Fold each of these.
Amino acid sequence: MDSDQFRKAAHSAIDESKYLIDYYDTIEKRRVVSNVEPGYLKKLLPDGPPETGEKWEDIQKDIESKIMPGLTHWYASPSSVV
């Protein structure tokens, strides 16, 4: 990824994606505590890295569908605010 591609990906992560801004807009709909089993992610990942680079949009989709289910979303619960 050259600097121009990185710049576009970084702007997309903030401005256009459902990754950061929409995450905070939808956090109340997410589970506070993950319900996945330990090791769940390994089953979802390929055995090795891709032969060629992937589009940032595809990486963002993987983050949402594969990584987010394993995270704890503290701000999803009003009782988690201290």
Amino acid sequence: RLVESLESRTGRSRQERSVSVEAPVDIPPGPIELEVPDLRSPLERFRTKPKKPLSVTDLISPSWCELQYWFTLTKHGRKRRTPAMKQGSAVHKTLEEEVHRTVAVTITTKEDAWGLRIWNVIQGLRTLRETGMTRELEVWGILDGLVVNGVIDELSHTCPDPELEATERDPTDAPPPLPADQKSITDFLSPNHSRTLTQANFGASGQSPPEPPEPSPNVYITDVKTRATRSVPKAASFRPTLMQLMLYNRLLSTMATGGIDTDILFPRYDLRADEPFTDAFIAQMTGMFSSDSVPPSSSSEADTLSLLLAHNSLNSLWSLLTHEFRLTFPLGATSVGRVLKAEYRHASDGQIMGSKTLRMDDALLDAYMAEGLRWWRGERHAVGVCLEEAYKCGSCEFAEDCGWRKGKIEEAREKARLGRRKGMSAV
């Protein structure tokens, strides 16, 4: 879809009106080439090899507004980093450095780069087992034949909402079913499912926090969101985070069961899965220690060297990753907690403002993914927001060019006119 700004149309109209009908027009020699609209699906245009595969961001962003994400892809190719996003990245980096020590590694091949990514996941799983928590864990999955990639902000053995988990485990404790005309999880969490955290700054000491709950053998997902305003989003504004948490749960559960087909995964990234890692890469990795929670030593360097020499290719290192997942998730997908948490921090100082907890809903995620992939595959057109969510247009950079928005404005005006006519006729 070709988009033209209002200003350019106005300027062009003035130019056309200023040209005399009798004025000669210079026509360049040769055939006239007309611009042909690109009728390929979003998946073909933006996420087909050699371009990168789908990300969790790709699948979740349209839940805010499909048309906005369509304009983003067609105009910019990706989401542009705003100052608020940069502030959020700084908060995430601070949180990550509380758990992991970052070490620079020089990479010369794609296989080495992927070896480092897999190794970081292995280290993250070991840190989770040793300390009860890890951050920035990369995950992959294959959904409906498509490779998907994402990074989970936080994993821990601490259940974010034991009461909510109890209703998940024991159906007799669950509340009775809601009436047919009342929404449940699709209303994006009622207030009684929200949990407010004690406000605290990084490193600030306030009142003594309550005793933490007992660690669970399960692993729970937390997504950290930063906001410029000191408030927690409600209703439709929470929808993207809701779906993001559920999608992370699905990807992590798949990896916990060893369900990733590397014959699909590695070719999608054009990787030579049996190619040995370079000597330079192994030498650098040997200088690192086997766990972020253990200080470096000659024995840990020897352990790292022996592990890499024994798993000196992507296929072999992936087998080690699968083993680490079995150790971390002994019951497979059952070890992945079904209570999910969104934590909100202020972008300027990392202050915790509150949180929301929710239960995993496979049916809701399946329905969302099925409809979303229909758009990605070009089986339907992108749609804009409904009238009740028109407030989103106020912060959208594409609002002036959005035909959907203009159509909804006209629709609202027509409804108002009809209402006035009915009122006059009643009088």
Amino acid sequence: MICGNCIAKNDRFATYCPFCQISSDRTPLPQGLRDPPAYSPPSSSRPASSIFATSSHAEEPPAYSPLVLPQGYVEIGDHNKEIPADVLHFVHPTQDTVSSLALRYSVPALALRKKNNLYADNLLAARKTFLIPGEYYQGPSLSPEPIDGEEEEIRKSKIRRWMVACKVSDYDIALLYLDQAQYDVDSAVETYLSDEMWEREHPLACLSKGKSVADRPRRKFGTQTGISGQL
């Protein structure tokens, strides 16, 4: 509603009825539609030059400081570039955590978990080695060298991976399959699983060669020939 004082003080309402929306003067709008009053901005004591500053008098923003990249940083985004090899880090059981490794190598913690298939940060304590993704870091390993050497640690890591994947605790069988596959873990696991499938499909062939169920190696953990006694 519009009060009587507003109607009396507004000169436009003398020729226009806000209730009927009809104007007695000529208007470009058809009758029955609202013909809004012209808008005039409120008067201001400040000069227009101070309100609307031109671009010529506007101050330019300060220049950006140069970005300091961390040591070993590799820019990603160009898929044509060859991604460098991952860096092997030897885990310290009491000092290394996912957060500390992320800060030390300037690598996101999410990238470290994804690269190493780590579903929980507390599982890092059970590992001896940890991979630093090469697309984020390119440089030397920041961990101390192990006593047995880096190559020996990599070999033992592949043996543990094969034994866990195949659920075999016999160290000699692990060495046999990995030596034949030249320490290619995926190929060695595939060969072992295919042999297991052949034995299940041809049980009589195994018995004819003198191989009985009792002669097969026990595929359960906890024996004296397990990984804890060999590594």
